[in-house]
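Researcher: We plan to redesign the surface later, but first we want a full-length starting point. Tokens attached.
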């Protein structure tokens, strides 16, 4: 088998796996954390970038939905300081165990870890100033129910910040996210576009 043929077969396998993964809607397993935490993702959707885009500051109450091992959770906890708080929600126990170890290692005391799926009704009403969905929306079966639960969990002036990054197998197009957000009772407040990513900030449709 030639090198060119090997490369072609390898590429075909990657594409096939990606399509199956997207169709099945599987969340990223804990053993694939390097797909979430690497220089490429940091360059286009690093934690500092996303926190700045959403306006997170000391005292903010943050929801990191689909938090995984805490790529955004931990920097958010530092950014909000002792007067703020972060709720890290994920459906995978293995991811939350990784996160707990990191929280302990960093000595953080302002993070609450919640094992739940979005749409399960586990989030308190009017609890958060800012909610994040970072390359997570495509993994959720009932996207509208999930967005509606986040909408209810936000304070009146709260912000939902949704970020999508290519080549995530569950990537959601901007037009798709806009339609889902409108259906769930959000309105667009700002957008930042990149070559391979975008961040859409939303607020409750009845605000303002």
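Model: Full-length starting sequence:
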């Amino acid at each position: 088998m030639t090198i060119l043929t090997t490369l072609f077969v390898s590429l075909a396998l990657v594409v096939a796996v990606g399509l199956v993964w997207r169709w099945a809607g599987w969340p990223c397993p804990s053993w694939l954390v390097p797909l979430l935490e690497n220089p490429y993702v940091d360059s286009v959707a690093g934690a500092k970038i996303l926190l700045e885009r959403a306006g997170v500051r000391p005292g903010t109450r943050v929801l990191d939905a689909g938090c995984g091992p805490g790529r955004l959770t931990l920097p958010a906890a530092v950014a909000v300081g002792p007067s703020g708080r972060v709720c890290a929600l994920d459906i995978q126990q293995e991811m939350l165990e990784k996160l707990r170890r990191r929280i302990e290692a960093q000595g953080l005391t302002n993070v609450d870890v919640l094992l739940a799926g979005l749409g399960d009704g586990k989030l308190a009403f009017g609890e958060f100033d800012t909610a994040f969905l970072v390359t997570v929306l495509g993994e959720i079966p009932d996207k509208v129910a999930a967005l509606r639960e986040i909408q209810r969990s936000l304070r009146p002036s709260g912000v939902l910040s949704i970020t999508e990054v290519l080549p995530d197998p569950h990537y959601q197009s901007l037009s798709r996210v806009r339609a889902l957000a409108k259906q769930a009772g959000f309105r667009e407040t700002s957008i930042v576009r990149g070559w391979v990513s975008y961040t859409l900030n939303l607020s409750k449709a009845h605000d303002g």
